[in-house]
Design brief:
- By secondary structure, the protein is of the alpha/beta class.
- The longest helix is centred in the last third of the chain and has 17 residues.
């Protein structure tokens, strides 16, 4: 029995290098797909897709989470994408978050959601980089001259109820401070 049990994983490993599993345009799947190898999806999937390498074809659609080492998106994904290497082709349409190590977006690609870089997006270590990313994005807003000039007067104007008298309130503030 040990020979039979150990032969099955070897067959799976060798099958992984044969070529991609192709799910054609006439296939619609309700449920999750999981493969350690390469998947080329040209149909529709309502469920999560996990693969070593995933290509979502130009006319394909996924409603669920995508997780892969490498993800090339040419079609439509409604859900989050977690991959070490993510490439959005010009025909891609993503509605969801992308967590990645590397990201390439071609001109013309549509992406609506949040994007975060993580050392290991698949292993779940996205928490620390996401926190630093949110800090950098929140500090990026005030660093712009428009954001900084709008944010600083607001606390100063908060005690005085009218923003129209900002020059008089700033003069009063100078008198009080003297």
């Amino acid at each position: 029995m040990d020979a039979v049990t150990s032969a099955a994983p070897q067959q799976r490993r060798s099958a992984k290098s044969v070529g991609p599993s192709i799910l054609g345009p006439d296939i619609a799947i309700n449920g999750s797909i999981q493969s350690e190898g390469e998947i080329q999806l040209d149909g529709a999937v309502e469920g999560d897709v996990r693969a070593g390498s995933l290509t979502v074809g130009e006319h394909a659609a996924v409603k669920g989470e995508v997780e892969a080492e490498t993800a090339l998106i040419r079609g439509h994904v409604s859900g989050s994408v977690r991959a070490r290497h993510v490439q959005l082709a010009s025909t891609a349409r993503i509605e969801g978050d992308i967590i990645h190590s590397t990201l390439a977006i071609e001109s013309g690609a549509y992406f609506e959601g949040n994007c975060r870089r993580a050392e290991d997006p698949i292993g779940g270590k996205a928490g620390k980089p996401a926190a630093s990313q949110s800090q950098s994005s929140s500090s990026a807003s005030p660093s712009s001259s428009n954001g900084a000039s709008q944010q600083q007067p607001r606390p100063a104007n908060a005690p005085s109820s009218s923003s129209g008298s900002s020059s008089s309130s700033s003069q009063e503030g100078l008198k009080t401070g003297s």
